[in-house]
Amino acid sequence: MSKLKVKYVCSSCGYESLKWVGKCPECDEWNTFSEELVDVKKSSSVLTSILNIVKLDEIVETEEKRIQTNISEFDRVLGGGFMQGSVVLIGGDPG
After folding, report:
1. Does 85 reside within a domain?
2. For a Cys staple, 33 with which of 8, 63, 64, 72, CB 3.0–4.6 Å?
């Protein structure tokens, strides 16, 4: 089902905004925005055409290289060491 939404378009430069603003941030003109109704359609077919559904038992596991710290318990908690490009919070306030 489609839904109507309001957008505001600057008559001077064509800048679009979801809220009415007095001064256009693009061309610095005052009171040039006019209200337009836009037909918004919710489409889930875009995602389903891009995504491929794969069963869990069809996923091939690959072992990624890990950087070990040589602290056995710390490496165990990290699943064998740091992953390249990962960020790990080692200490911080609870919660």
Report:
1. no
2. 8
**Number of folded domains that form the chain:** 1
Q: What is the pLDDT of residue 90?
A: 83
Task: Report which of 21, 16, 18, 15 is spatially closest to residue 6, judged by C-alpha positions.
Answer: 18
Q: What is the pTM of this model?
A: 0.42
Neighbouring C-alpha atoms within 13 Å toward the C-beta of 52 = 3
Cα 27 versus chain centre, distance: 29
What range does the domain containing 28 cover?
A: 2-42
CB hemisphere CA count around 62 (13 angstroms): 2
